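step 4 of 6: structure.
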Amino acid sequence: MKGFIYKEFLHIFRDPRTMLILFGMPIVQVLLFGFAITNEINNAGIAILDESKDEMSIALTDKLLASGYFTLKENLRSRDEIEAVFRKGNTSLVVVFEPQFSSRFIREGQAAVQLIADASDPNTAHLLSVFASGIIRDFSGDISIINKPPLTIRIQTNMLYNPELKGVFMFVPGTITVLLMLISAMMTSISIAKEKEMGTMEVLLVSPLKTWQIVSGKVVPYILLSFINALIILLLAYTVFAMPLRGSLLLLLAESILFIVMALTMGIFISTISNTQQQAMLLSMFALMLPTILLSGFIFPVENMPDALQYLSHVMPSKWFIVIIKQIMLKGLGITYFWKETLILALMTAFFLIMSIRKFNVRLA
Amino acid sequence: MKQIAVDIRDIRKSYTGIKALQGINIQINSGELFGFIGPDGAGKTSLFHILTSLVIPDSGSATVAGYDTIHDYREIRKIVGYMPGKFSLYQDLTVDENLKFFAGIFRTTIHEHFELYKDIFAQLEPFRKRKAGQLSGGMKQKLALSCALVHKPQLLFLDEPTTGVDAVSRTEFWEILQRIKYMGITVIVSTPYMDEAALCDRVALMNKGSIMAVNSPENIVRSFGKNLYAVKSEQMFPLPGLLATIEHTKAVYRSGEYIHYLNEKDDFDPVLIEIYLRACGHGMIQVHQIAPSIEDCFMVLMQQSKAQKAA
């Protein structure tokens, strides 16, 4: 057993490609998902057309720019310039103050601000207008309190758990899930299929080794490496993206190990039905990777999918694991809130374990 | 007195319609160096897979050291050493690491039975830190043999160990097998090379999933008719057809630059061949009587079984 595990580590450390997949990919993926593939608002370019230029419009402009969501690209002088500034492409929102802004506000109790958004990117346009109106409403509230009289209705929207709507908080759990799945399932299935392909499985079978010894000799190194990977990703998320960890680290790691073991049993199962490394890789890619990315709620919310796909997403182990990670990291909840998800993962593990032990052949096919 | 090490009874096996083995019956004695001789596709590897418990036969049964290959496969796997036809060590591990690994899975150490393979290992000594994938063909086979011997098996199964190995290494390899046999290990080896048959105690000549003969190489050659001739003329192409029309011809086949001709009559006179060929207009005729080799036996047996099937 010990010798088997040692041998497996030698295989891993001697193959530069394996090493690259194991340790290069997680880092690159986390950084990619974290920085490039986000849909959050950060320093969006805006232009201001201030037709009154009084104390209140200037104060509101300052408040908008101080929020951090917006960067002032241009001050416009007339409405004719609005189209031109959108055409330049670096501005996605124009804020227009009507003339005599503060005097109207104080005298008539209301003044108008017009938000013109570039809706060629509808998501961004919507988000920007929501953010801007939030700030403006906030501003009018402040003024009303100072001036007391008419009670204006304040709408307060709170973005719970991720108040800044940071995309990275969504992508990190997803990335951890995808990577653990990839490394655990794909790498084990490939490494077992490799023994079959190279003919070494024949020699292993004609030896006193039992099935569970061969399998665990293959699996133990990958449990360790996947676990190290999970730690690296979490560390990156924590340091580079300031992802909070509100719940218990121990619980998170324990759940990660459960998921890793689940993925490994899937990997063993895949290897029992494939005879070559290529077969194993394709199977893991199509059976695991794509559904994990597409159906787990990692990129597309499960709630928005057609019913059939929603049902399909229930059999994706990754979907449940993502829920668990988010509950722990973002909400800081304990096991009582997601024992159901944990149980589902445990049952899936048991299922694949039994299936692969039954399928694992003590002879040649 | 003689103990049976391997008992094969009416083993049959087909792979998707191809009959790989069609009723094999053989008893191999303990301490024997036994060879399965036959061309590619004769069924040697299929038979080895069944004997090493890797494959279940369609029908028939086999025991290895008294253990049934289907039910007692765990016991068999403890006491046999197996070297598959394809080089099956870890190419990215060094010589030492491979040996250590195989010692480990058999719960032994490199040193415990070192006397068994120390001669072989002495030749590997300079390459101990080299990766197995970078060894020469002969060295690879020696390493594989060392790994198969590391737990001192009672029986050693070697599937075509000398295929793809140079002539010098082949000779060396067979010397090693002789030594292993004298250490009390039953050695069962398969080979497509007919000349290697003479190095075995007993051989089974195999073709197309059937055993054509089982005997010691000397007896196989002895049972062969006396009247074997090597014939040559200036027109080689029509020669076999012409020879086949001679009365009481048993077999005609090409062997190197000669046509080998066998007649079943003991009192056959080779002058007949020369007269006949000359009458047919052949010149530069050579006819020599030759001592049969295993290859001759094999060719004759093959032609006979073909003739039987045709009839």
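step 5 of 6: annotate
 - The longest strand of chain B covers residues 4-15.
 - Chain B is about 35% helix and 30% strand.
step 6 of 6: archive
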